[in-house]
Amino acid sequence: MRPGKSAGTKGGRLLLTNDDGFDAPGLAFFEDFLLAQGVRLTVVAPACEKSGAGHAMTFGDLRVTRRVRASGVEGYAVDGTPADCVKWAMWRWKRRPFRMVVSGLNVGPNAGVSILYSGTVAAALEAAFHGVRAVAFSLDSHRVEDLPHGREGLALAWPAVAQGPWVPGEM
Predict the structure, then answer these.
(1) What's the whole-model pTM score?
(2) In 3-state terms, what secondary structure has residue 163?
(3) pLDDT band of 163, cuts 50, 70, 90
């Protein structure tokens, strides 16, 4: 991605993923936030929770189920890890690549040594390996009830994240 390009509707489509699973409240919360920012997105997330999976990969065939999200966004539940989700999405849409991969919103902090185990961070790393800019967001709380407090942080961070300037593969 060239510096100065937007990650919003003018800059192309985003891939949203996580490690808490396709039906996780944090994913729905982040999806709603991004849609309110005018972002076009596709959701590809693990079919079930894969917290702590790190950068594990599944060998062999992945079972992928297309599921339309409550918001109407196209979604895919992958029977695999967060890194599998990103790798599959990069292959699936290689002719129409994503402008950016956004991973989260993780319920629970990813800081210090925990980033080595984090599926949320691993999904962003996988995107960077494919030359796509990526970012991972986590909530500094393990309580789902605290998700609304994350909106302030997202609102502050999103303009800088969306506008760049970033170079391809930067995380």
Answers:
(1) 0.89
(2) helix
(3) confident
Residue/partner pairs of 164-167 with CB below 8 Å, 24 or more apart: 164/1, 164/3, 164/4, 164/5, 164/6, 164/7, 164/133, 165/3, 165/4, 166/1, 166/3, 166/133, 167/1, 167/3, 167/133
**Is residue 7 over pLDDT 60?**
no
Give the angle subtended at the CA of 91 by the CAs of 55 and 103, to the nearest 5°.
Answer: 45
Using CA of residue 163, residue 87, residue 25, residue 12, what is the dihedral sign? positive
Per-residue model confidence as pLDDT tens digits over 69-114: 888 899 999 999 999 999 999 999 998 889 999 999 988 888 888 8
- What's the rounded Cα separation, in Å, for the pair 135 and 95? 22
